[in-house]
Design goal:
The structure is a single chain. It contains ten helices and nine strands. α1 runs antiparallel to α4, α2 packs across α3 and α7 packs parallel to α8. The longest helix is centred in the first third of the chain and has 16 residues. The chain is globular and about 60 Å long.
């Protein structure tokens, strides 16, 4: 069963797009011997999700399963890869070669999932000209010309917050069509440019709140009110 090219819908729930890579990872860990099948019930049980939700998410890829049998495991992996575009490599540039940028450059799985960072850019003279995990660091002012020359459409921002907007503007001037922003800053882009923010502070805040709730820790405000009574 070969994935087919189908018209993409832009009203796909963000939550579904975030779950599909999780399904993919679990499928990779399952038995992939010839003829292996997997059902939505199997996946839902492993992940603690509703089988109906899993089925709806998988149906977005266009694959059709068999009742009481499910999907050929290998085929389902290929359909998810095709739907998410992981089987069509995309070149990218990285702005910001600090600790976070270096970590992103060293993450090998990006290449396995369709993104290859060709060059990194920074304003630090000590970093310019060096290689981080094999990727050369270039002067930031050369970014627009490099992007234009290589016809790169994807940019990754890992700069300090104060520099993020200016870097985004440089990327867009070079022809970048999608930005993955790791900087802790709000940036604005034209309507034709896709912006994906990865807010690490949000994730930490959510984790911290959930942990304190589980431990029964009272907010300081509530403790003060109790003491005044």
């Amino acid at each position: 069963m070969k994935p087919f090219t189908h018209l993409r819908q832009f009203d796909i729930p963000e939550a579904s797009l975030r779950r599909l890579p999780i399904y993919y990872r679990i499928l990779q860990e399952m038995d992939s011997t010839p003829g292996s099948h997997v059902s939505c019930t199997n996946l839902a049980k492993v992940l603690g999700l509703d089988p109906t939700q899993v089925r709806k998410d998988i149906e977005l890829t266009g694959i059709v399963g068999k009742p009481k049998v499910g999907y050929p495991l290998t085929d389902l992996l290929h359909w998810i890869e095709d739907f998410l575009g992981w089987n069509r490599p995309k070149h990218a540039v990285l702005a910001g070669a600090g600790s976070l940028g270096a970590a992103l450059l060293g993450y090998e799985r990006f290449r396995n999932h369709g993104m290859e960072i060709l060059a990194a850019f920074d304003t630090d003279a000590k970093k310019i000209g060096t290689r981080i995990h094999g990727t050369k660091v270039e002067p930031m002012l050369l970014l627009p010309a490099y992007v234009r020359r290589k016809q790169i459409l994807l940019g990754v921002i890992a700069t300090p917050a104060a520099a993020a907007q200016a870097v985004a503007d440089q990327m867009i001037a070079g022809g970048i069509r999608a930005i993955w922003n790791f900087a802790p800053a709000h940036i604005t882009v034209p309507p034709q440019v896709i912006l994906q923010n990865e807010d690490l502070y949000y994730s930490l805040a959510s984790l911290s709140f959930k942990l304190e709730t589980r431990l029964g820790v009272q907010p300081v405000r509530e403790r003060i009110l109790i003491c005044k009574k």
